[in-house]
Write a structure and sequence with these properties.
Three copies of one chain form a homotrimer. The first copy, chain A, is mostly helical. Chain A has one domain. The first copy, chain A, has ten helices and two strands, in the order H-H-H-H-E-H-H-H-H-E-H-H. In chain A, helix 2 runs antiparallel to helix 6 and helix 5 packs parallel to helix 7. The longest helix of chain A is centred in the middle third of the chain and has 29 residues. Chains in contact: A-B, A-C, B-C. Chains B and C meet through helix 1, helix 2, helix 4, strand 1 and helix 5 of B and helix 2, helix 6, helix 7, strand 2 and helix 9 of C. Strand 2 of chain A pairs parallel with strand 1 of chain C, so a sheet runs across the interface.
Chain lengths: 234, 234, 234
């Protein structure tokens, strides 16, 4: 009971600060008040909405629980009133955001397992819950979603936390254990990765042409081989 | 009965002219025939589809009612045959579009309340029904959705009409009253706002740093104060 | 039974090669590993996910069948390891891709009819199943979806195959017939269209102003007529 209360509070804190972040993005794009509302709601509630739409298990939590929409709107409203940049936001809230990221990933994985789906959908939808709102927000304002790179393992931490939740659930551990482990480990990793600028690798440089192409167009290979790896840096 | 027939007809008129508008956008982007079909269908049916997917209450109306898809396609087809610009469209259809906007907002709010959700989701989904198709269309062709600003209170009118519908419903007024009030008030406001170029305000200029930042980095404030408000116009 | 096995295998082959294609797009955009995963999953599973969300008939097949996600991930993983361009992909897989396109269109139409919806939604969702993943992928990386033109009748073939499936179903033909006819005819058409660069037409050049505008602003027409058709090429 105690843990569930904490989880709910952290979930809603995440909604608020993501609504606020959405509002900061709306300000940067010089949107009008309606733009703040849309981007704030999408940032704060988008991940859960996508998850619940995919789960097909009744109306989304964000619509049935009367707290979600007002709290997301409050975040956007604060961003509308106060001149807040994304950098200010990062400085003030990145710890809270790391915690909320993990809480959302745990909640998404739990909800997916509760509906009876398997471990892989649980990880997928846990991650989606955590990063889907921000990604949709970025799409709405026409930028490549930040989760695709250069963001201190943001999405990877969400996937890891969802995976931990799945493992704890498979081991029969009570909810509190999975939640605590996921949030503590995930938040710690996220904060370290954020400060040190850790990144996932980009694509490797093995040449598909070497492996597969040879069989298809062997005569073409000779000339091209000389210039090979020119576009690789190492 | 009479009113419901009128509402249905206006709803379908909205589908047709938004399909046509979508087709005009497709023409501007020089898409092929399939592009006209997709953009027309999204413009005409997108808002209702998003609403029904979020409500999770059976297949979307646009798929179960056999009139919606053909009418949206007819609109796109006309735009494919006739050289129609968005400006032509605005000149010819902005009154009809204002009416359809309000009808859609009313219908979205009613449907949300009928499913048993609260007043805030009803306003949110009423607005989504009215403006979601156009916003999705803009995303598909890579432009920032027009509802985010500079569009004569378009989205705000939808939100207001949905709110009026919610109030009338809460007061126990028969459907016809809420519908009539919403459509009449909303259309009038939209037409005035459109002609006079009324807009919602952008973000206010209160400095978040003054309110919150002081507590975080007090020593940094001194130097920055001199340059403060330079980027504010008033 | 035999045919259904073949269909399932071809469906999954489509998931794999579209995951791979998604990964190639991720490489071109220099996304990190998470980007490969997201774009791969969206490319391979997006069309079916959109269809199942719109059908509102239980959790999407891609989440309940344990093979879909791993196979899409495998495709993205291969693209992460091997340096694969979209051109390499086209050279190696376009026949397989044409087959998968048709299989997806058939499957989408069948599933829509099975839920009890009409022929037009069946064609719409059959096409969506076939091309929705690729279109969503293009949106995520900020390019106008390739299905909107210049792509060798890609989407049109999907619509045709879905329509053939609807016709076969209406005639009471067993599933195997509709599937076979659709896949054979569709694949043949796609391959010919691809090689010959066939395209759908863009919008026609009939002047809307001539047909409709005259009634609205007759006096303005005179001056404009001289400059008319200047923007038409033929």
């Amino acid at each position: 009971m105690r843990v569930e209360t904490i989880t709910t509070v952290l979930d809603l804190v995440g909604v608020f600060i993501n609504g606020l972040l959405g509002g900061s993005v709306a300000r940067r794009r010089e949107l009008d008040l309606f733009g703040y509302v849309v981007i704030g709601v999408v940032s704060g509630l988008g991940g859960g909405l996508i998850r619940d739409v995919l789960l097909q298990h009744g109306p989304p939590l964000a619509l049935t629980n009367p707290l979600y929409i007002p709290i997301a709107l409050a975040g956007a409203g604060v961003a509308f009133l106060l001149k807040f940049t994304e950098r200010d936001w990062n400085r003030l809230f990145y710890v809270l955001d790391a915690i909320a990221l993990c809480v959302w990933a745990v909640a998404g994985a739990q909800r997916t397992l509760a509906v009876g789906l398997g471990w892989l959908p649980a990880i997928l939808l846990g991650t989606t819950t955590a990063v889907g709102g921000g990604a949709t927000r970025d799409l709405l304002v026409q930028r490549v979603p930040a989760v695709f790179g250069g963001n201190g393992l943001y999405a990877s931490v969400a996937a890891l936390v969802a995976a931990l939740q799945v493992i704890c659930s498979a081991l029969g551990a009570p909810t509190v254990v999975g939640t605590s482990v996921g949030v503590v480990v995930g938040t710690a990793l996220r904060l370290v990765a954020y400060r040190r600028g850790w990144e996932l690798p980009g694509g490797l440089e093995w040449e598909a042409r070497d492996v597969i192409g040879k069989a298809v167009h062997p005569p073409l290979r000779r000339n091209r081989r000389r210039g090979r790896r020119r576009d690789g840096d190492d």
